[in-house]
What we know:
By secondary structure, chain A is of the alpha/beta class. Chain A has 14 helices and 14 strands.
Amino acid sequence: MALVVVLGLLLFAGLGCGGDETSTDDTTADTAAATETSAGETGDTTETSEAGGQAAAPTGEPIVFGAVVSATGPAAALGEQERAALEMLEGQLNDRGGLLGRPVDIVIEDDQSNPNEAVTATNKLIQQDGAVAIIGGTISPSTLAMKPITAREGIPQVTMSAANAITDEPPIEWMWRTPPKDALAVARALTYVSEELGVTRIAVLHDENAFGSSGLAEIEKSAADYGLEVVAKESYRTDETDLTAPLTKIRSSEPEALVVWGTNPGPAVAAKNMDQLGMDIPYVGSHGIANMTFIDLAGDAAEGVVFPAGKLLIPESITDPAQKEVVDGFIAAFEEATGQKPNTFAGHAFDSVGLLANAIERAGTTEPGDIQKALNETTGWAGPDGIFNYSETNHDGLEVDDLIMVRIENGSWVMAE
Amino acid sequence: MSLQEFLQFVFAGITSGSVYALTALGFTLIYNATGIINFAQGEFVMLGGLAAVSLHSGGAPLALAAIGAVAAVTVVGLLFELLAIRPLLNASVLAQIIVTVGASLALRTAAMLIWGREAMALPAFTERAPLSVLGATVVAQTVWVLGVTALIVIALQVFYRRTMLGKAVRACAVNPMAARLLGIPYGRVVLLTFGASAAVAAAGGVLITPISFMSYSSGALLGLKGFAAAILGGLGSPAGAVAGGLALGLLESLSVGLLPWSGTSGYKDAIAFLILLLVLFARPQGLLGQRTAQKV
Amino acid sequence: MARFGQREGAEGAAGESRKARGSGRGGRDRPSRGPGGALGWPSGNLAFLLFSLVALTVPLYLTNSYYLSILAFFAIRLMPTIGLNLLLGQAGQISLGHAAFIGLGAYGSAVLTTRWGLDPWPAMFLAAVLSALVAVVIGVPALRLEGHYLAMATLGFGEIVLILLIQLKGLTGGTDGVVGIPPLTLGGWSLTDPRLFHVVVWSAALIMLRMALNLPRTRTGRALIALHRTEIAAASLGIDVAFHKLQVFVVSAVFASIAGSFLAHYVMFISPEGFGVTLSVLLVAGAVIGGLGSVWGAVWGAGLMVLLPEVLARYNEDYTLLAFGLLVIVVMIFLPEGLAGAPARLLGLRRTPHIVGSRTQAEPVEERGSECRS
Amino acid sequence: MPVLRVEGVTRRFGGVTAVKEVSFQVHEAQIKAVIGPNGAGKTTLFNLVSAIDRPDEGRVLFRNPLRSGDAQIDLARTSPHQASRAGIGRTFQHSQIFEALSVLDNVKVGRHAHGRAGLLSAFLTLPRQRREEAEAEEAARQALQRAGLGDRAETEADSLPLGERHLLEIARALATEPGLLLLDEPAAGLNNEETERLAETVRRIRDDGVTVLLVEHDMGFVMEVSDEVVVLDYGEKIAEGSPLMIRSNPEVIRAYLGEDYLAEEVPR
Lengths: 417, 296, 374, 268
């Protein structure tokens, strides 16, 4: 009986929910399309992306992208802008005539930063909403939990999370990635340590969460390649109150630089504690502190901290003219839509949608196999995260050069090199 | 290990330990009056810190922000007692545990909805270079924490030892019926206790935010560590709570420092919890306490 | 001799008042009634048969794997909730560390299959054995403790297991989790088909439900209800209190472990963060909100845990935890029988007894008195 | 050979000596009462005899007369449930019935030690479970008969009046098939009629061969049912003998009057 009740409520919730979303989406799309049409001019649908904002109103069955983001829960700081970007991009795509002349519907599900919810959400997106491709998840555990489903169903999945395992462990036939994977960020940071700092003895202080320990694993694996020796490694819990104990232990092994791999607030505590202890070795952070929160928390202690980041953080660092144009357009549009500056994660969302749209246009169909083939043929596609080159074996797309090293000076970011 | 390093570990332990001690005090207060362990205690610490951050960033001077935060959280504590604890004062231990656990869930989530997820900072009470002893350093804020903790302990000791109400509360905390027979307005005592406990917790939150920052999720771990500290010190004794807190902090930091191999700090918390379990199993009355926690 | 009687008045009154404290607000102090307790459910087999029939035939008319995955999580959530319902409702013992047993089951299955190449079913079995052993090791000392201390001890235990899952990287993959966990198979059929999986996972959950429903009207079940009300009286009737508490603790751990194994083989990926205190607390919250007075409460609680997020998703899923926290408080105060007891209560059919045990149950009256005297 | 031999038993709580070097014996099929002013240590003594508590000194030796094969055991080294299994049944001063269960189920709890069906049998409703359940029901109904509650089996326990609650506790204890039945203030709070019914029941139980040790304040009840009386004061035995002897014992009278006098001086 309870089951009947639950089922009933589920149907109610599900249908109601779906209904709501569809209707809002439709309205937005319609209005947007209407506005656009009034602007006139018709373009060839296959060239819509170049055609900019001047295209025919898309018609017919919408093409559904399903997205799983962590809009709530612990990882919401990452997922919030992803959601905002996805919502904006849906409108943008439809304004430009949709894809293949059809409207695009990006259905966004929140996994609450919980991999189990990501499973339910992915099933819903594929079964209920008929998604032709999946975007997400925000966090690596969700992506890894979704991976068997998309692999089983044979639906392309473009993830916005960074763990190496996502594309290192088979199967990867249906999985592509937009952010620089952890190994890439580590490679960028270690390059800086060995080439710019010119030291050999490093210590690692890392958050024991997935982000931090994956960073440590990658550092330990590749340190030797950069002529570096890890002389000490200590971990801490994300909500640790004081890190002077592990730092003191680290100090006793006399490293020449400290690599801190974690997300806030730990790295900020570490920066303050280093100040307190009078440790004046260079502090190299991770892309996990590529946000104002770190500067707010660490205050003066943040000065001089160096970390790897996507070029979106300092748009002036972009040298490739095509990428510059795309990124400038994205920043302007995002600021107009949300009133906020886009962060790295918004960039991941942009790249995910862009790469998929690009592949579908080239494929000319929404058949999964064709999208798969087209994605693998992606070359030189420029977005906020960098220049993407996928192949059958490379589903990461980015290179070390797509990252820059950033230094904190006077409470803001400057290029470190 | 050099003396300087050893001292540094001791200071690290004292810094964390003083945080635990302050949290433990709140547990002690409520336990003394009601026999209840408030599983939401850590959340009051968190609320204190975040409220102070809000007030301070809203333009209030630090001292005013601190006092305002303590006052606000005290009100929350009083409401908590009236709305959630009062109806269940005569109910089973299990019901009381579940209600405070539920409250901690609710308070934490509410805090997240109000303040968001990012950790927030507060400036140190006195801006000055860290104090240095034989090369080992400790931030001035730790001294603040220790000082206020000492003040609270002294105040509590005076209350329990010198005032009629304090004596009555302490003597018959385990038996509210007897307290009623002795003419003590039991309901009011419990209400005051929750208010006082929330105030102490909030003060702790305000004091530690400059050291360790504060976010909506900080309360859970603080609560657990604070309880471990309270148990170590023997539930019921304010001085014991402080001793337990400092002991726990020292144990943690020395376990990081003394274990010879690298990468042991991940087990720091496990060590703290293991000690909690061992103490509970072997000596539930705590290392310093006398009251029995076990059934016959 | 009449004077004697007079003098006794004092002690009698004090005794009564002590008792009054226990029973407090009208009937708050009693352990659960059996499944036939009319707690919103028709008693006995009929309700169970109907429920089973509905649960197992769902895939016939529902093929949408979104709904099926919600129902699969319902079943997976139901298993530990049944265990907690027995532990809390019948035996009156709390555990704030049961997520650890789900984690042990999930990791046991994951590690045994991916690293040591075992088949999923034996892996699930071995993981359950491991969980049972751990439950014995932790239960023997912990279950001697009274309410608050037991709660804290189990909380600490849960934290330790979580830390070990994170730190023993060689075995568990640390925070990266374990990928590539094989799905369950049955007679050569892979249970990746959501409909097949549904039938299997619900069969397991229903078996647990049936077993739990059988319990209250048996020797063991009555022993649990008795020791919940008063351990001393139970012991005086020949009940080995420690043994029975341990037994139900182990059973609840095994149920949780099996749920964890199903989860691992269903999601095919696990990572440690899902097995923390929040899950433990949510499980207890679910069990309480569902209702501890009847085993059916577990069904309500687990259903709500799975359903509420889906409904609240329209607004903001962060409200889910807030709702659960507040619901627990409200239920505890106004609806001590939980959702399962709500219909009967609302209809005024029956004042059902409270389940969470009396304050005095664990306290020897004599000692308590002497403490205050001295 | 006596059923129960209390030998030099002492029990201290902190600085207070609740029971001090108390010795006495209870013989088969006898009703023995322990009386004494408030705080005299009666309940402590009872807890020692039912193995809920352990003496600091002395022995509490018990031999079950109804099971001739059983050896004598020292209750000071026994756990409560083992004491029950050895043949000690008890009731409590403050009603400790299981309100959530029916009267019959309450008594069935008393059959616990006579069953073997474990958790597995319970979960799976194995044949053994069904068989034992039937046996338990049969025995429980008999025990209810003996306690004079035969017609109340299907009632909810929490709807019983106080007098019948006490009888229920007795029935429950009888279901364990005790050789020695300990009654902790069975007549407390009962009206005359209920007390009379209780006295009848207790005598009938004694006549069935069950030895009874009781603590009681109701002197009328004690004098009516007891074969022998032990008087405690401040934890020490001050008198022992037949009700008639106790009634006129000057020590006893002084103990009670003295206490009374004290009680008036210093109100509690």
